[in-house]
């Protein structure tokens, strides 16, 4: 029983770190897009 629980916990941790990495990548993309947008705006003025 214990082994099943720990395996489940490991998979949960893996999923959590995966979604965390995905969120970080999304945040980074958003930041990059935001910076590009700001640069484009300041360039056109």
Q: What is this structure, in a nutshell?
A:
The protein has 45 residues and is an all-alpha fold. It is built from one helix and no strands. The longest helix is centred in the middle third of the chain and has 43 residues, at 2-44.
Strand content: under 5%
User: Judging from the principal axes of the Cα atoms, what is the shape?
Assistant: rod-shaped
- The DSSP helix count reads 1
Q: What composes the largest sheet?
A: none
Query: Could you give the count of β-strands?
Result: 0
Radius of gyration: 19 Å
How are the secondary structure elements laid out?
Blueprint: H1 2-44
In words, what does this structure look like?
The protein has 45 residues and is mainly α. The protein has one domain (1-45). 96% of the residues lie in helices and 0% in strands. It has 1 helix and no strands. The protein starts with a helix and ends with a helix. 0% of the residues are buried. The model has no long low-confidence stretch (mean pLDDT 85).
């Amino acid at each position: 029983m214990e082994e099943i629980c720990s395996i489940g916990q490991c998979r949960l941790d893996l999923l959590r770190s995966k979604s965390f990495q995905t969120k970080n990548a999304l945040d980074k993309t958003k930041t990059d897009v935001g910076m590009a947008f700001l640069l484009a705006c300041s360039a056109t003025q």
